């Protein structure tokens, strides 16, 4: 294969570049994937430092990309924050990505919750049990209480 040292083993950089060519990855994700391929921790850390310095890996860019993809899936802010934390991003990086998206007008969480609800259900439900099912649906998608309430009241306004 091309790009491999003469011993046939890929370097941490080769494997990291291959992963980054497919999609953005957080530093933690890359470290975990490279460790799973058997690379030494010292080599992984050095490689990731070099990639970040060269602008090939960026947690900020990963957070923005991840946030956009989850918004398109109709997921709420609570679930997205948890997923970003699980992928090794700090609260500051997450907060910055959310602020950037909100300031750029890329997301209206209340409208997103209403749209997700109206796509899934044809109406607000006639019984308390049906309404509770709709609330659980939005809560499981990671929407906050106020967003759930707004969606239940306005999801079918245009219908």
UniProtKB/TrEMBL annotation:
Q: Check the record and name the InterPro entries matching this protein.
A: RecX_HTH_1st, RecX_HTH_2nd, RecX_HTH_3rd, Regulatory_RecX, WH-like_DNA-bd_sf
| Protein location | Cytoplasm
Which residues are in the RecX first three-helical domain? Answer: 13-51
* Positions of the RecX third three-helical domain: 106-152
An example GO biological process term is: regulation of DNA repair
* Tagged with keyword Membrane: no
Q: Which UniProt keywords apply?
A: Cytoplasm
Q: Which residue ranges does the record assign to the RecX second three-helical domain?
A: 58-96
Write down any Gene Ontology CC term. Answer: cytoplasm
- Signal peptide residues are none
The family note in this entry says:
Belongs to the RecX family.
State the protein's purpose. Modulates RecA activity.
Name of the protein in its database record:
Regulatory protein RecX
């Amino acid at each position: 294969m091309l790009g491999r040292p003469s011993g046939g083993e890929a370097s941490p950089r080769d494997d990291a570049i291959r992963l980054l060519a497919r999609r953005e990855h957080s530093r933690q994700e890359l470290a975990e994937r490279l460790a799973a391929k058997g690379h030494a921790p010292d080599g992984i850390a050095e490689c990731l430092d070099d990639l970040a310095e060269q602008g090939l890996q960026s947690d900020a860019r990963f957070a923005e990309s991840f946030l956009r993809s989850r918004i398109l899936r109709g997921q709420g802010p609570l679930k997205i924050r948890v997923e970003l934390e699980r992928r090794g991003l700090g609260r500051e990086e997450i907060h910055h990505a959310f602020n950037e998206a909100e300031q750029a007008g890329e997301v209206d969480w209340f409208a997103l919750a209403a749209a997700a609800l109206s796509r899934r259900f044809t109406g607000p439900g006639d019984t308390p049990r049906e309404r509770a099912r709709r609330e659980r649906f939005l809560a499981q998608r990671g929407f906050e209480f106020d967003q759930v309430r707004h969606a239940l009241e306005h999801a079918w306004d245009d219908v």
